[in-house]
Amino acid sequence: MLQEGEIAALYRRYGHALYQRALTLLGHEGDAREVMQETFCQFLQSRFAQKSSPFTFLYRITTNLAIDLLRKRKTRGMNVPLENQMLTADPNVAEQTQAASVLLDITLGLDQETLVIAVLHHVDGLTQDEIALSMNLSRRTIGKRLKHFLSYTRERGANNDIKNFVVKEGVTHES
Fold first, then answer.
1. Which of 69, 82, 159, 160 is 20 to 30 A away from residue 51, measured at CA?
2. Domain of 105?
3. Contact, 81 vs 58, CB < 8 A?
4. Residue 49 contacts by C-beta under 8 Å, 6 or more apart in sequence?
């Protein structure tokens, strides 16, 4: 169990990066702050086994919470009003927020883990090896999940949306 001082140090060290992650996916500052706070609450309640770095574990919690919130918005028909959406000079952040939104539209009903893998690959631009390392899964499992994701979305006629996802420049992806 981590001590209070260790949690505070993690918050100071990673809080801003986790907030930016949530903001990128959600496009709303208030929601991003809530997700960041909930990330640390869940981290405190978890049994962090140090199989990965604390940042990797916190990043995954943040991604899961943001995806959960986006899904709740979609199923309840709630979208963030345009005036409340994030205004940013960084086109990559805005495009990633849009890509995450499109991803959620075409994946309703898909399991959470496969969706997280798809976000990490198609939105964040991580390679399959990087995802496998961060999620403590085999590279083969990641490949199978991405194939399932593509099959699932193709069945729903979303092939063109998938091709339009924003990924970091210079990152190559394995199919």
1. 69
2. 89-175
3. no
4. none
**pTM of the prediction?**
0.68
Asked if 84 and 28 count as a contact pair (C-beta separation under 8 A), the reply is yes
Do 103 and 72 fall into the same domain?
no
**pLDDT bracket for residue 13 (50, 70, 90):** very high
pLDDT recorded at residue 168: 39
What's the structural domain count of the chain?
2
Find the CATH number of the domain harbouring 71.
1.10.1740.10
Domain boundary among 39, 60, 87: 87
Helical residues (DSSP H) of 79-127, grouped into ranges: 91-106, 112-118
pLDDT at site 47: 73
User: What is the torsional sign of CA 124, 129, 134, 139?
Assistant: positive
